[in-house]
Write a structure and sequence with these properties.
27% of the residues lie in helices and 22% in strands. The protein contains five helices and six strands; from the N terminus they run ααααββββαββ. Strands 3-2-1-4 form a four-stranded antiparallel β-sheet. Strands 5-6 form a two-stranded antiparallel sheet.
């Protein structure tokens, strides 16, 4: 799941989406510009402020083990099984560059989350407090 969802554009679904959308566009029922903002582009913008991103995740599937995904944003990533028990869910750790520490204050993080992710249907928490409080449609 981590490889499929956080991997390269070819395995993220974007390529298939573009091919399908091109077919619809040729048929006059779609628009190719709808790809903007899709398939993790926002996730990969984390590398604008982070030298490395670590994702620790465990699927809700029965018997699933936890895994850690890491990348320095250079086009490669590693995935390994966690050595310890991991709760169901996902934790994203940004290893913020020294030059970008201004983005790390709770006030800035809260403002950005509320502006861009308030309607995400999964809880986003900061220091134990839920930030996205508006119900998704």
């Amino acid at each position: 799941e981590l490889s499929a969802n956080l991997g390269t554009i070819a395995s993220s679904g974007s390529k298939a989406f573009v091919c399908e959308l091109q077919g619809k566009t040729e048929a006059g029922t779609g628009s190719i510009d709808k790809i903007i903002g899709q398939f993790g582009v926002g996730f990969y913008s984390a590398f604008m402020v982070a030298s490395k991103v670590t994702v620790i995740s465990r699927s809700a599937k029965k018997g699933a083990k936890g895994h850690v995904w890491e990348s320095e944003g250079t086009g490669t990533f590693t995935i390994a099984e966690c050595a310890t028990e991991v709760p169901v869910g996902t934790k994203i750790i940004l290893h913020v560059k020294d030059t970008e520490l201004g983005f790390c204050t709770p006030q800035v993080v809260e403002r950005v989350v509320k502006k861009y992710s308030n309607f995400v249907s999964f809880d986003i928490s900061l220091n134990g407090a839920k930030l996205n409080t508006v119900e998704a449609l």
